Amino acid sequence: MAKEKTSALHKNKGASQSEDMNARAIKNIRSKRNTQLNTKTLVASILKRDTVALSRAITLIESKHPSHIKQANTLIEACLPYANQSIRIGITGVPGVGKSTFIETFGKHLTSKGKRVAVLAIDPSSSLSKGSILGDKTRMEALVKDEHAFIRPSASGDSLGGVARKTRESIILCEAAGFDVIIIETVGVGQSETTVHSMVDFFLLLKLAGAGDELQGIKRGIIEMADAIVINKADGDILKHAQLAKIAFSKALHLYPKKASQWTPKVTLCSALHNEGIDAVWNQISDYIAITSENNYFKEKRQEQNKFWLIQTIEAQLSSHFFNRPDIKKELQKQLERIEANKTTPFAAADYLLNL
Amino acid sequence: MAKEKTSALHKNKGASQSEDMNARAIKNIRSKRNTQLNTKTLVASILKRDTVALSRAITLIESKHPSHIKQANTLIEACLPYANQSIRIGITGVPGVGKSTFIETFGKHLTSKGKRVAVLAIDPSSSLSKGSILGDKTRMEALVKDEHAFIRPSASGDSLGGVARKTRESIILCEAAGFDVIIIETVGVGQSETTVHSMVDFFLLLKLAGAGDELQGIKRGIIEMADAIVINKADGDILKHAQLAKIAFSKALHLYPKKASQWTPKVTLCSALHNEGIDAVWNQISDYIAITSENNYFKEKRQEQNKFWLIQTIEAQLSSHFFNRPDIKKELQKQLERIEANKTTPFAAADYLLNL
């Protein structure tokens, strides 16, 4: 719960507005707010980079109403030919590491270079509170006002899988709306990093310098997923600590075998607050894109991710359909008790349940 | 393939013989070799610690013949009340690390302490050659001859899941045959370590001292699964290297958060060839058993493992049943191509396939 309060992405419900907004389209959308939205108009507006239309479209994706689901599917299909042209960056880090400040400074750096930046979030914990916490609007203030940026709070949903699907569909819409860089923030709860990792091109781990125990308590597998580790707040008195942390993390990265991308992850220092080291992060990402475009890993990874999500979605639904059957629910508990009492094996119990 | 040739567990097809062997039972078994084995007799012989009967029972488990499968299930069910009383130890390490020598010395150490030791193996690569390579019988010579030891080569099967099931069922039979310690060797191919890890109480990683780059090339996740790292061949000129390797591995272990078992994995040196440091390994395992019995983790882990295998088996079968449907096979390829051409999303494609 504490994590939700510190995540900037719950604060601003798509508040950024583009100047080239289509006034007629907005009027049109508003008049139909409580009725069925016109899909064609919405797609046209998204392609015209209308961020209000984009926001409404994402809301449609998030809806559970059957007619909305149908409309959302049509919408995504219409946007698909315009998607896939962005760079997708995942950013993770524990609360307090300065994710909001980093994303704001990094985002402003990109928009100053003429890039259009969308920020999405995956936060399974927010699904529990149904996104009810809105919080203050002071975080990412400059990026919120930036007409080349779009910030969308975490999708709500019943499961991480559901949230993941919505986020992944939102990426398609953002890409159709002409965003060049999509940043996906995760608050690091549960399996959220793995989920984000499986939908981005580049995965960045944001860290703080500590008192020499930087590596303690890092969630399993996070370091080996990272394409870059950026140590934030590396300024003033902490700079020396940050330099030591850099050495420790570099050694930790060294423990892992070479990545399939042929990319060697690096550790860099930055101070998002003082806008130091941000350009180096972007240069690193640009290098990564260049190398992985050259060796075709960039495209292969996206295809792998597509296949992963296809198989994953099917398996999750087969499993959920099976284990939600009332007869299975009842018998599963009985079989577990029988296993515990040495009356059956997990395999025999599985055969029994599958034959019900 | 090279791994098979160096794994001792392909060499000895249950050749160890117990002195308290039931002569009548053997005669009985031999006479019925080509017909149906009598399940009751087999169970009785296993409970009498007859290792020839145990070998025949494991062969039944490995059979794909429907009548054998039925008999095997009856057999396992009859043995279950006598199972679960052993300590299950997983041992992994790359070829050349001296696994056979270690298991032989370690096994002899245990039998000298009055323990009865069974050695099984998980080797997915052997399933490809259907266990046709038998090799020489010179490895683990002393353990093979030891009447308190039982060595069984890797089960063959079409999939790691299949091999895993057979190994796990073999554990039950070995336990019913009164073995106190079950050692499960893995040759470290594919996902075999994870599979072994999910069926043992204690997981031991065997390593060699190198030229300071010990940590390079270690398969992802292996170190964090280890309850102990034992550096073998720590003698003579290599001792100094081994001591440095010990420091490096201790630091690497330090990177991971505290285990749910409350056990802190340790790094120790040994020379299996010179029988040095072997007692320390067993003392460590005994400490582990004491700690995790006290905090109930030992029992909880076994229950977790049972639940894991139950769910895992069901999910694998649901998935394999779905993806082996001829219509799905055909449409899956088409949908993957549509995704690649930006004509659909993985989620829409999944919905489509599930509705076929």
TrEMBL record, chains A, B:
This is Methylmalonyl Co-A mutase-associated GTPase MeaB. NCBIfam families: lao, PRK09435.1. Belongs to the SIMIBI class G3E GTPase family. ArgK/MeaB subfamily. Coiled coil: none annotated. Residues 1-20 are annotated as: Disordered. It holds the Pfam family MeaB. InterPro entries: GTPase_ArgK, P-loop_NTPase. Gene3D superfamilies: 1.10.287.130, 1.20.5.170, P-loop containing nucleotide triphosphate hydrolases (3.40.50.300). It comes from the Bacteria.
